[in-house]
Design a protein that fits this description.
Layout (H helix, E strand, L loop, with lengths): L3 E2 L8 H6 E2 L1 H13 L3 E3 L1 H9 L8 E3 L1 E4 L2 H14 L3 E5 L12 H9 L3 E5 L12 H19 L5 E3 L7 H9 L4 E7 L11 E3 L8 H9 L3
Parallel strand pairs: 1-2, 3-4, 5-6, 6-7, 8-9, 9-10
Helix pairs in contact: 2-4
Length: 220
């Protein structure tokens, strides 16, 4: 789980600093994955593997990026393209075309590449556990509709804003047609995990390459 791929801000922005991975450090992490035999796939590809529709590659890993920041296009995408790595980025449709976020044209370009899956992250990035049933449905369905109309195909992967989830939210996510959804709960996703409540491993800005490697290689 990544957020920003950008130069880390100063200590006056501790949250942004923790969520920011320097482009050079990200490049080192991607190189490490490549040299250690990992195969990055999209969340939809993971779903196809779980369904038995395609075989699992060697050491599959899903690289996810939350919020749809423009620095993904500027810094992460060129590095991923260099290694022919796949990834999933979750976008907030109400913020696309605004400063710091992807433009709709960037989203379409990434989708057309075939390597980057566009996932949904609601319209306004609200805590879904705290909204009404009507707003919950709107945040889920209107995001999916906007992306489907822009990309020309359904969007089936979802990330819960800030990882906030309960049974009502999960049921509404399924009803909206999403097949895979990720939380912010730490951990590896196993074959028996709920496809609408998958855990992830967070990559923080202060993490060294050795800590990154340990995150993936430590015993479950």
């Amino acid at each position: 789980m990544y957020h920003y791929i950008r130069p880390r801000p100063g200590p006056d922005d501790p949250i942004g600093r923790a969520l920011s991975v320097e482009p050079a450090e990200f490049a080192a992490q991607i190189h490490w994955l490549s040299t250690h035999g990992y195969t990055p796939i999209t969340l939809s590809e993971l779903e196809a593997i779980r369904r038995g529709d395609q075989p699992a590659p060697a050491k599959p890993i899903v690289l996810t990026f939350d919020d749809g920041y423009r620095d993904f296009y500027e810094h992460a995408w060129p590095i991923l393209r260099q290694y022919n790595f796949h990834a999933t980025i979750f976008v907030i449709t109400g913020l696309l075309d605004s400063p710091r976020y992807l433009t709709w044209e960037m989203v379409r370009e990434l989708d057309r590449s075939g390597a980057i899956e566009i996932g949904a992250h609601t319209v306004h990035h609200v805590d879904l556990t705290q909204v009404s049933d009507a707003q919950l449905r709107a945040e889920l369905t209107e995001c999916a509709t906007a992306l489907r109309e822009a990309l020309g195909h359904p969007v089936l992967s979802f990330a819960y804003p800030a990882g906030k989830i309960d049974q009502r939210v999960k049921a509404a996510t399924a009803a909206a047609g999403y097949r895979m959804a990720v939380t912010t709960q730490p951990g590896r996703a196993g074959a028996d995990d709920d496809p609408l409540a998958l855990p992830r491993l967070r990559v923080s800005g202060e993490m060294t390459l050795e800590q990154f490697a340990a995150l993936l290689t430590v015993s479950s």
